[in-house]
Amino acid sequence: MKFRLSLSAEPITTQMLNGYSGVGMIRSEYLCRACGSYVTKQSCLDYIGNYIRHAVKTFPNDEVWYRTTDIVAPHLNELEGVEEVIEDKHYILGMRGLRRATIYPKALQQEMGLIASLHNEFSNLHILFPYLSDPGELHPHLTFLHQLEYSGKIGIMAEIPACLSQISEFISMGITHVTFGLNDLTTLLLGARRGSKAHAPTHPVVFNAVKCALEQCKRSGVITSIAGDLNTQLVDTYSKMGVDYFIVRHDQGICSEA
Predict the structure, then answer these.
(1) Contact yes or no for 2/239 (Cβ under 8 A)
(2) pTM over 0.85
(3) Whole-number Å distance between alpha carbons of 8 and 199
(4) Residues 190-224, buried b or exposed e (16+ Cβ, 10 A)?
(5) How far is CA 26 from CA 68, 189, 258, in A?
(6) Does the structural domain 2-257 have CATH classification 3.40.50.720?
(7) Contact present, 196 and 151 (Cβ < 8 Å)
(8) What is the C-alpha separation between 148 and 114, in angstroms, rounded?
(9) How many whole angstroms separate alpha carbon 158 and alpha carbon 162?
(10) Would you list the domain boundaries of the chain?
(11) Per residue in 70-101, pLDDT tens?
(12) What is the pLDDT of residue 90?
């Protein structure tokens, strides 16, 4: 089994090289919150760019995946440069990820422009799109990447059940990597708030949903990863299913236990 890092704006050190095969996701929303501004501000893009450069230089021979912003409304409303303050009562299920980009595409376009530019300098940098449920949400952003002449790899987060059920359609669009986000997927499949006793990522329904989509990915040669609050049981189960990578925080200790 192979492990990749999940980075949430923490300092990147050479110690992270031990046991990790690159970076499975740079969670950009944490970088925005760290600098206090949104990607609509050049100062934020500069901050993110510097962090990415540090990551790709630390892992020059491994892939580094940048996940575009997935900020829930209460956190986004606090940032300088937010397009509009939105009172989203059900923000976990609300306007976030690519769903927000459908309404406000400029912010994501600025992010994609940054990644396309950095990819020209660092070929191991790739882009990961979060929280999407339908191929139609992704299509205009793929078109924009094509206009930017972006030549890197493109991945998606499979964390909404509707996304898993349409995984073959996403693959047909040229997606080469799928990361299953267990935290949100468990919430949406079981109707359970994260942190509650009902939130059980080891539930058979969750395993079966991932297994079905995973089999389609494997038949198409798509690389797969599992991300979330992982433990050794989850790692063992999904390893037996044939998952390629597990994306974990450096402080989770999962890599050292495996």
Answers:
(1) no
(2) yes
(3) 23
(4) bebeeeeeebebeeeebeebbeebbeebeeeebbb
(5) 8, 25, 23
(6) no
(7) no
(8) 10
(9) 9
(10) 2-257
(11) 999 999 999 999 999 988 888 888 899 999 99
(12) 84
